[in-house]
Amino acid sequence: xxxxxxxxxxxxxxxxxxxxxxxxxxxxxxxxxxxxxxxxxxxxxxxxxxxxxxxxxxxxxxxxxxxxxxxxxxxxxxxxxxxxxxxxxxxxxxxxxxxxxxxxxxxxxxxxxxxxxxxxxxxxxxxxxxxxxxxxxxxxxxxxxxxxxxxxxxxxxxxxxxxxxxxxxxxx
Length: 172
Prior knowledge:
Blueprint: E1 2-8, H1 12-24, E2 31-32, E3 40-48, H2 50-60, E4 68-72, E5 74-78, E6 83-87, H3 93-108, E7 122-127, E8 140-144, E9 146-155, E10 158-168
Antiparallel strand pairs: 1-3, 1-9, 2-7, 4-8, 5-6, 6-7, 9-10
């Protein structure tokens, strides 16, 4: 079984900007994500067998969506999962096109998706949060020109996210 999700994977410059904001957050007991794990989840598949993982990976090559830019300009505390995350006040239409296409594709491969909430782009910065800290920061503009299939692996040093494959976004 593989624990998989589709995500936007930042370039090094964007990753450094996100990590710079994350380093400014100070809260007791906070478990921050490693800079190499920062991403924006599109569709979470969860645990899938190798056959399904291969089929989804092959089918992802046929997903068509235009590139877009996200402007992460809010820091939010989500109490139920106890996370701090960056979010966007507004999301461009192409991200919904991409998320909907990926969702339809994984459902066609009998992947049962657990999250029924409307999609909201976010970058998880830290877990085990207790409140939203006061923090001023400049918005991060993320130009998304590709999406990735990512595997979550447990290691001795914690969870590590590994890109299995990625595909370009292009004008449809």
